[in-house]
Amino acid sequence: MSLPASLSVFFAQMESQEGSIPRLDLDTYIQNYTGPTRFDRLIHIGKTCVPLAVEALKAAVTEAKKGVDIGRYREAFELIRIAAPGEPEAHRDHAWIERTDAANREETRRLDLQLKGYKNNLIKESIRMGNEDLGTHFENIGNLHEAAEAYGRMRQDVSTTKQIIDCGLHLVDVHMRRRDWGLALTNAGKITGMNSEREAYNVLYAKVVSGICQLGLENFREAAKNFLQADSGVPSSDYRQLASPNDIAIYGGLLALATFDRSELQAQVLDGQSFRTFLEHEPHIRKAISFFVNGRYSNCLSILESYRNEYLLDIYLHKRIDAIYTRIRAKCIVHYFVPFSCVTLESLNTAFGMPGYNLQEELIRMIRDGELKARIDAKNKLLVAVRPDPRLVLQRTALDIASTYEREAVERLRRINLVAAGLEMASTRKFTQNPTGASEGHLDDDLPGSQSIEV
Question: Could you tell me which residues belong to the region Disordered (predicted)?
Answer without folding.
Answer: 430-455
